[in-house]
Amino acid sequence: MHNPQALLPKPQLSVVPLPGSQPLSNARHEHYCRLRSLLCPKGQALREAGMRAVKNHDAVSNATRLERRQDVRDRIAFLVRQEEEVLVEKRKRIEEMLWVIQQLADQAKELGIEIDLNYRFAQKSDE
Predict the structure, then answer these.
(1) Which residue, of 5, 16, 82, 125, is most buried by count of CB atoms within 10 Å of its CB?
(2) Which domain holds residue 84?
(3) Is 48 within a domain?
């Protein structure tokens, strides 16, 4: 029996990574992008990433020049999006935990136990 599928050309799937999804090959540039995605100022990020600049003005100028590169801009943008997604997931988990705490407090109240969910830790004043 003849297989008609064998005569059809196989589709070629090429996987193209999202812009900025791959770490930069230059470790200093990658470190700089990670710092900038966390809102670190340009000059400070440049220095912390291991790049030299005598004056802060020079550091900011060099960082501005670095951020003109498309690969650097793409990487920062990608990392910022990743951070936002992480924050959304963390917020979701925190809200779920708070809901469980509220339910436990309601059950404790039914048993006659009062729990103040607005309790704030006070600093010790006797030290």
Answers:
(1) 82
(2) 19-110
(3) yes
